[in-house]
Amino acid sequence: xxxxxxxxxxxxxxxxxxxxxxxxxxxxxxxxxxxxxxxxxxxxxxxxxxxxxxxxxxxxxxxxxxxxxxxxxxxxxxxxxxxxxxxxxxxxxxxxxxxxxxxxxxxxxxxxxxxxxxxxxxxxxxxxxxxxxxxxxxxxxxxxxxxxxxxxxxxxxxxx
Length: 160
Prior knowledge:
By secondary structure, the chain is of the alpha+beta class.
């Protein structure tokens, strides 16, 4: 059974990006160098998200469009809020499956890494029990424990 999340064991939030839904590679090529918000599901996890907590951007999918793994590290910039996309916003953070439901987004500052920390590197470091590895189809946000984050930080560049 998975551990319950609380402030004692939360290392970082993990936001999943499916490149079939949001083309992160094209966004970076167009000059976007950080993620400023992302869609999250309503629930206790979203309610726990607070300014100053660490956040990771994970690219999921089958690996054909982009390599799977950690593509960004940064911070939560504030509490989750109702998502109201602007007319010129591509809506990458709006969960289209939540039709008719309140849509939520978390404000972020997650610079995109030049090179990801790949799934293979993460496994080689001994991490095989990240929630995103055990339940890849789970909703946002996912999370990483403090113990898991301690292992990941050896693979990541310094936190911005």
